Amino acid sequence: MRTAVLSILLLLFSSCRTEVKSPSVAGTFYPSEPLILKETVERFLGEAEKTSLNGELIGLVSPHAGYQFSGPVAGYAYKNLPQDVKTVILIGPGHYYPFRGASVYKKGYFRTPLGDVKINERIASLLINEEFNVRFEPLAFEKEHSLEVQIPFLQSRLKDFSIVPVLIGSPDERSLRHLISKLTDIMKDKREIIIIASSDLSHYHPYDEAVKIDRRFLSAIEKLSIEELQKCLSMSQCEACGAWPVLITMAVARNLGATEALVYKYANSGDTYGDRSRVVGYAAIGFYRTGLTETQKKTLLDIARKTIDSYVRYRKVPEFHITEKRLLVSGATFVTIKDRYGNLRGCIGNIYPVMPLYESVIRNAISASTNDPRFPAMRPEELEEIEVEISVLSPLEPVKDPGEIEIGRDGLFIVKGSHSGLLLPQVPVEFGWDRWRFLKELCHKAGLPEDAWKDAELYRFTAEVIR
Q1: What's the CATH number where 343 sits?
Q2: Is residue 200 within 8 Å of residue 213, measured between CB atoms?
C-alpha cells in the first residue's frame, strides 16, 4: 500500500513540474554571474541613445553575438523598447540543429542568470501547426544562442512579461505564410505585444567591404522594401544570418501598418572589439507606424499637382529629388481629381505598396488625369479649376463580420472571380450611405450583383486623406 501511494505522489509531482529551458551560453556569450550580467546590460543601455520618433513601435531587430562584440549595438534596440510591453515574440535563426520550417518553444520558462521568464503558452499554441512545418522541436533550442542573448536585455528593461521563442530553420513558402499571417492576427490592435528579430549582418569581410555590404541591407530596410531586401540577399549583395527572421518581422510590421524603419545604430566587430581584418556586422532597428507630417503631406500634394500640370500640358514627367525617408518607403495611394463643381474627373490608384510613396503619387496622378477609362484625357484648359486629393492607404484587412465596417473610417475592396472593385473611405460619407448601401455600391462598382459581398472576398482599409 505504501509503495502504491508513493508511486501516485511521484506521478502527481512529475506532472506538476515546470519545464525550464536552462541557459546554453551563459559564461560564454554573456556573463554567468547575475550581478556582473546586470551591470553589463545596464551599462550597454546607459551608453545607448533613445531616439525620439512620433510613432508606435511595432518591432525591433537586435544582434545576437557575444556581448563584447554586439552588446553596445543591442543596447540601442532595447533602449527604445517601451517599458509597458507585456509579450515579446522573439524570432531568430537556428544555428546548430538543422530542421525544416520553424520551431516554437511551447511551454514553461526560459532561464538566464537574472531569473526565469515565462513562455506565453497561448500564443505559442496558436503558432504551432504541423501541416505548415511549424512545431516544437526541442533539439533546435538545446544549444541555440540567438534568442537567449536577447532575454537579459528584456529582463533589465521590462517587468512582468512573457515571451514566445521562435526559431527558423529551413522554411518553405507555406510555413512563412502561416507564420506571417498568424503573427499579424495575434498582434493586431495589441500594443502590449512586440516582435523582435534576432540577426547579425555580414560575416568575416574586411572592415570597409563589410560596411558597404551592410549598407545595402540597411538601405532596403529603411525603405521597408521586402522585395529589395530579398533581391539583395538572393544575389549575395548583402548578408544576414537571421535573414528569414528579419523578413518575417518586416512583413508582419508592414501588415500592421508600419510606415518607417529607423536604424538606431550600426557598427561591426571592428568598431566594438578592434580587429578590422575580418568583422561581423550588427544593427539595431525599429519598425514604426507613423502618420505623415504636414510638410510631407504638402510635398506629396505638390508632387501630384506638378505632375498633372506637366503631363497634361507637355506629356512630360517632372523630376523630383526626394530625400525624405518616409516618402521613399513603399506605399499604396489613390489620386482623385475633381472639377470646379466637385464632380469626379478621375481617380486611379494602387492597393499594394509596390513602389516608393512619392512614385506611387506620380504614377497615379498621371493615370487619374489621362488614363481613367471613365473620362476623356484632361485638357490643359481644365488645369486651373481642378481639385486634387491623395489617399494613402493602410494594408488590406479581411472583413470577418460586415457589422464591423465603420462608415468614414473604412474603405472596401471586393474580389469575386475575375471581378474586383474598390471604394475609398470618404465615398460613403460624401453620398450619405449607410453600411449596407456602401456594400451594394461596392458590388456595383465591381460589376457584380448587389448582394455578391455575402460570398466574395471582402477587405477593408483606412486612408490618410490629403487635400
Answers
A1: 3.30.700.20
A2: no
